[in-house]
Amino acid sequence: METTYDIIIIGSGLSGLICAYILSKEGYKVAVLEKNKQVGGCLQTFVRDRRIFDVGVHYIGGLEEGQSLDQYFKYLGIRDTLKLQRMDMDAFDTIGFEEDDTTYKMAQGHERFVDSLSQQFPKEHHALKKYSQAIQDICHKFPLYFLETNKAYPDTYKHLEINAQAEIASITSDPKLQAVLGGNNILYAGRGSATPFYLHAMVLNSYIESSWRCVDGGSQIARSLVKQLRKEGGTIFKQKEVDEFVFDGANIKAVQLTTGEKLTCKHVISSAHPQQLSRFVRNESGRLRKAYLNRIQGTKATSAIFSAHYTLKPNTVKYINSNYYHNKTDDVWNTIENNHKNWPSTYLALTPKTSGSPIYADSFSAMCYMDYDEVKDWGNSFNTVSNESPRGASYEAFKEEKASLLLDQLYKRFPELKGNIVNSYASTPLSFRDYIGCPTGSLYGFERNYQDPMRTALAVQTRIPNLRLTGQNVNIHGILGVTVSAVLACIGFVDREKLLTDIISAT
To answer: Which of 154, 152, 157, 166 shows the shortest CA–CA distance to 197?
Structure first.
């Protein structure tokens, strides 16, 4: 094991791997440190009963020829390696409500999106066109979202201060259409009192452009990136957890691991959750201001998630090439607040796509909100490489009970599941905490709030001269969001114009 590098990258999630690839390609000697035995962060998959399940990436947007993520992936050299299936053109997402037999369809392509929903809301065609244009317009406020490299960022924050719920209500007065347009907001943990319109727009627009499933799981993205990284001379170390930074004056000179090993470096890029900085830096000499660390520690996290995964009997349940979002009521912007009294107040359900049968699904997955407090009694136990079930029988019973309650809800919309489930497997916020690294199991990191947009806007460059940050807490979550955050972290090591030109011209 070599011990001297130009740049050490903490965490092998998508942003960390992209940083490592870019910088290795540019001639830097780079090492990625991953505390788990599997790379990929939210790209990780797991196998139960020989079925593949995704941890966090259930579908991807913006991968049609010429779209932004397609171009980023071409530059990374992974676009042609991925096994993908395009989702239903007429309904990549369907939105449902408890006492409403109608399901509302979101189609791919802005024109189709407008025309499809206009069939269900014939009086709202103009409003839907206005909505479609509004989400595209605000996305253009972020130049790297559309790879508009010659466009400057706005010099005000006004576009960050628009409330999603209020903006949608200003576009259409139809309460059901308002609920439909916000009905899949579990994609970004939407809350009416907090969620900014730009976040809603950047997530939805990508899927409206084009929606895709990874065949046999999203971990293929990480595997392809690792292969590309190694071609460029980069190194990845698994099961290597960072303990603290070692300083020489103002700069980090080495990274100390929990194993006692020490790697020297010139620079560090951390894609770990920002709350880890308090441990890495151990701020005995004020290298990071207490106000900065307190802000990070005190920033509200997005809601945590409970996931249930059901393996199916062969050739019994048909594959569904769209996602289904269910809401107990039309009050979609308060599902997190209502979750404790009406669990699950909302859920996402889908059939993962495998390379097996083109007609039948071999598994079924669902996810819904869960407050971290529900599992805090087991909070002092941790999954490790050597201990896969450390929390005891009471925890397993809790998971089984919740998976069963969720299944009862799923039966109402998917009666074909009855009698065809072999086994169920559940993940709580503790699972996400241990494997993804978010302290309270939050899937999407910091909550963005339109009322105080700069509070969670962490800069890439920290006060420590040779420490930079990347990942979903720096930009936004999602495949495109963390890809952009990686590019931003690399600018400074690599000439901005050259890097962006290389991305745009990649084939």
So the answer is: 166
Tell me the C-alpha to C-alpha distance, in Å, between residue 346 and each of 205, 257, 340, 459: 21, 41, 11, 33
504, containing H or E segment? helix 496-505
Name the pTM for this structure: 0.96
Asked if residue 108 lies in contact with residue 87, where contact means CB atoms within 8 angstroms, the answer is yes
What architecture (CATH level 2) is domain 4-46+61-83+216-299+451-505? 3-Layer(bba) Sandwich (3.50)
Q: Which pairs with CB-CB distance under 8 Å and at least 24 residues apart come from 496-500?
A: 497/149, 499/22, 500/147, 500/149
Can you give the pLDDT of all 507 residues of the chain as single tens digits? 789 999 999 999 999 999 999 999 999 999 999 999 999 999 999 999 999 999 989 999 999 999 999 999 999 999 999 999 999 999 999 999 999 999 999 999 999 999 999 999 999 999 999 999 999 999 999 999 999 988 888 888 999 999 999 999 999 999 999 999 999 999 999 999 999 999 999 999 999 999 999 999 999 999 999 999 999 999 999 999 999 999 999 999 999 999 999 999 999 999 999 999 999 998 667 899 999 999 999 999 999 999 999 999 999 999 999 999 999 999 999 999 999 888 999 999 999 999 999 999 999 999 999 999 999 999 998 875 444 567 899 999 999 999 999 999 999 999 999 999 999 999 999 999 988 888 999 989 999 999 999 888 899 999 999 999 999 999 889 999 999 999 999 998 999 999 999 999 999
Give start-end residues of each CATH 3.50.50.60 domain in the chain: 4-46+61-83+216-299+451-505
